[in-house]
Structures are given as structure tokens and as C-alpha cells.
Amino acid sequence: MQKKTLVSLVGARPQFVKEALVNAAARKAAYWRHVLVHSGQHYDIAMSDVFFQELGIPAPDHHLGIGSGSHAEMTAAALVAVEKVLAREKPEALLVYGDTNTTLAGALAAAKLHIPIIHVEAGIRQEPRTMPEEINRVVTDRLSQVFCCCSALAVDNLAREGIIAGVHMTGDVMYDQFLRLQASLTPMETCRRYGLDPEGYIVVTLHRDFNVDSPESLEGLLRGLGESAQSCGLAVLFPIHPRTSKRVEEFALAHLLRPFTIVPPLGYTDLMSLTAGAAFVVTDSGGLQKEAYYAGKRALVVMPDTGWRELTESGWNILVPPEAQALAEAARRILQPAPHAPHLYGQGDAALQIVEAIRKELFS
Ligand code: UD1
After folding, report:
1. 40 and 108 inside one domain
2. How many CB atoms lie within 10 A of CB 216?
3. Burial bucket for residue 267 (CB in 10 Å: 0-12, 13-18, 19+)
4. Does 193 share its domain with 130?
5. Active site residue 207
6. Whose alpha carbon is nearest atom 4 of ligand 1?
7. 357 near 168, Cβ under 8 Å?
8. Do 214 and 132 reside in the same domain of the chain?
9. Number of domains observed in the structure of the chain
10. pLDDT given at position 2
């Protein structure tokens, strides 16, 4: 008898990191035929291919090539393309990750075809509600049947919205990935390769629309980083996202990048090695704020709120607005020691837990 099929949909950087281990665990367990679909939302080599090679993810069975565009253009293109794949593959279920436009489109396409949806990283909630990623999460959770949560807080968030059935506290698959590769990280050697002194630099990543699409915010952030680096005696390593790089040109702010080490987006191992070797991290990435914690480093999170409140409420990470003075002041505070609460996001076996949750809910 032919095995039942599950379609797993990815499209943007953090989803590749998550799919790597879920894909391996699913293939090993072999409860279903695991069909991988790449929407093509991220398409540059540095934003996509590098992760497939480095993390040993099999080539996608379907590549939809949607590319960039406005939110509506991306979502609409993915919606049409995913529907075609689902019609062809006739899966028992669709697996989606996180909060991207690819995730939303996948959930909408599957829901209309009555295909059950599994949402990995379900239950994360973050202000403002108007943030594109928050809209994507809330709608995806509304349409899903199986909810794989990274934290106890995510489980509570779903319960507050009346979602109780199908909810599993699996832990964060990015923690699994970090633990898997931890022994092979080479902070000293990687720092040297980038011309940096261990513990002598700040790792910076910025890509959110509310930070980089406004000239005032972007300028405030770049000035604040320069001031922080100078007052703390640190260098700045800034792997720059294509969106941010375009805005820096557009707003004529390139002169503010001059004191920094600017590099293209990094692969997983280099970014984790450089995070492990840094003094601290400044980021608006949902993934990196947790990965810094896994690497024992604190992060200034440039967001009005975070889905990972365990880390800000425990005082490990600090929320900061995109303003020069606030950033420079927070940089001094983050250099102080803070208590490190272990295991906030599971035990490092999330991929296995996710596969078992799916089997229990949909394939038994
Ligand atoms: C998306 C996700 C966000 C996630 C982030 C990780 C949405 C709504 N947001 O944001 O949740 O944290 O990915 O990186 O889905 N671009 C390139 N090359 C690429 C990809 C993008 O040049 O390979 C450029 C595009 O032209 C566009 C910009 O980057 O101007 C934004 O890309 P997009 O996929 O819209 O959003 P992200 O900011 O990457």
C-alpha cells in the first residue's frame, strides 16, 4: 500500500533551519512520505541555497519560485502555486512553520481544500497586532488542527483564545539544531577569519520593516550602534539583509556603515560561531534572539514587543526602541551579567516530538 503523504512548506531563512531536523526525523520515522516544497520567498544563494547545503536538507520536491513583492503579491503568488501542488500531491496534511507570507498562503490554500494543517511555532503572540508576521501567525493558528508550541507561554496563549485540542508542547527545533552543531562551532577561528577579537564585537542583524523602512528609525539605529560600539570599545559585525542594504542606499546612510564590518547574510554555522564569540547581539530577528540565549549571549531586541517574552521578562534580553540614545544606554546595561535560566524552550528533542505529535494526531 502506498504511504500517505505530508507536504512540508518552507520559503524563508528561519524555516530552512527548522525543516532540516524535522525533515530528517520524519524520513527516519517513515510514518508518511515527506514531500518538501520551497515557495521561493527567499531566493538569493546567501538567503536560501547555503542553508540547504550546510544543513543537509534534501532538494525540494517542488520549487514554486514566487520571489519578492508586496505582501499581497507574495501571498497571492504562493497561494496559487501551493494550491496546485496540494491538488497534485493530495496530502493528508500540510506542515507550515512560523509566521511568513509563505506560511499564511500555505494555510489558506490547505484550509480551502480541507487539508489538515500542522503549525510549528504555534501560539506565539506579539504586539503590534498590525505587524505582518503577527497577522500571519494569528490567521495560521485559526486555520490549523495541530499546534506544535516552543514554550509554555505559547500553549497558554492558545488556551486564552480557546484553542486546546491538538496542542503539543514540543520545544523549539532551533534549540535542537543549536545543540546538534554546538560542538562543531569554532568561535575563535571564525572571529579571526572576519578580523575580529573574541568578545570584542557586537553581532547585529536588522531586517524588520518597522526598523529599516523608515529613514528616521534606520538612521537612529545606525547612529546608536556607532555610539554603543565606541563607548563600549567594541567592533560591529553586521551581516546585512538585502532589504536593509537597499534601504541604506535609498536613504543615503552608507556613511554610517563605514566603521562597521559589513558582510552578506551568513550561513548557519558562521552566524552561530560568531554569536558564540560576541560580546552581545543586537537584533530584530525572532530566531537570533533565542539563538543568542542558546549560545549564552545576551541580546538587545529592537522591537516594541517580542514573542519570546520569557527572555525579556527574565532580564536576559532587553527590548529597545530604534533610537540612538536608547540603544547606546541599553548597550551599557547588557554588558552586565544576568542569570541564565536553562531549558526555556524544551529539551532539545523538538523535531522528534513534532513528528510524534503529527503521527498521534493525523497518521495513527
Ligand atoms: C521574511 C519574513 C520574516 C522573517 C524573515 C527572515 C514575512 C512577512 N516575513 O522577512 O518573518 O523573519 O523573512 O529573513 O514573510 N530579498 C532579496 N533576496 C532574497 C529575499 C529577499 O533580495 O533572497 C529582498 C526582497 O527583494 C525584499 C526584501 O528582501 O525587498 C524582503 O524580503 P521578504 O521575504 O519580504 O521579507 P523578509 O524581510 O525577509
Report:
1. yes
2. 10
3. middle
4. no
5. yes
6. 100
7. yes
8. no
9. 2
10. 79
